Amino acid sequence: TTPIILDCDPGHDDVFAIWLAAAHPAIDLRAITTVGGNGLLEHTTYNARVACTVAGVSGIPIGAGAAHPLAGPLHPADWIHGPNALGGPELPAPTVPLDDRNAQQLMRDVIDASPEPITIVATGPLTNVAMLFEETPETVSRIAGVVWMGGSTTRGNVTPYAEFNAWADPEAIAIVLAAEVPFTMVGLNITHQALATPEVRARIAATGTRTGAFGRELLDYFSSTYERAERMPDGPLHDPITVALLADPAVATTVRTRLDVELAGTETRGATSVDLLDALDRPHNATVALDLDVPRFWSLIEDAVRTLA
Ligand code: BDR
Ligand code: CA
């Protein structure tokens, strides 16, 4: 099994990443940390606790991290995720507690306590991970790597060329890349293959679990905002592809390549530059996910939802 820390900003699709990580036998979810992103930190933290409560996941410490990006204010994605970052279903009061430790301290404790190197899976802006590396640089050599949902090999979704998590905190990406940690990017180019069609939503509800019913409400809302704001009738379930890739590497193809991030473009701040043609002749520093085995991915999600409460 692969031990992971899941750093997230729930967020509809982040919730499914939590569920997949908690349910899949090949993943050992050691901690959840939260960051401001899709919503304010208080909302994303609350929502992480809701996600665990709904699915009957207990005993996983949850630590709150950065409220805003390294270099400026947070602009929550409320046009996609709603004012509480988890629009749609009524949210049950969380029964799982919030840990006293902040995200960085919790990550350090989990990394220190683990005989095997931990993989950090990040499904929001990379703020918490960048802060961890800056506060304790020795962490970098002690983890197995970072698998991040964000960026794109093609175009963006907040600006023409920037994806939301990258656009939210490009400086954090630059810090994490400069650390030369094994880094995997799961960008829009692959996540837009994971469309929560009406058939997919029906399958998730048909699991008959409380998690499935809640998940269906999440996906209905998420797809309705995607239709309105992004002109896509079915919401793409971005975040859990990170966990799926660790649990079942055959779910996607990947390539070793060069990844850089734009910090200062006049129109392109937060754009990821993925040199698939090796045109820049720079050393490869990232693994980038390309093609999704779509049926295999939805089977992983469906199995997770069926396993949970
Ligand atoms: C990313 O931004 C958020 O809206 C989603 O949770 C995902 O992490 C997609 O651009
Ligand atoms: Ca997210």
From TrEMBL:
SUPFAM superfamilies recorded: Nucleoside hydrolase
GO cellular component, one term: cytosol
InterPro entries listed in its UniProt record: Inosine/uridine_hydrolase_dom, IUNH, Ribo_hydro-like
Biological process (GO), any one: purine nucleoside catabolic process
Record-annotated Inosine/uridine-preferring nucleoside hydrolase domain positions: 4-298
GO molecular function: purine nucleosidase activity
Pfam families: IU_nuc_hydro (PF01156)
Protein name stated in the entry: Inosine/uridine-preferring nucleoside hydrolase domain-containing protein
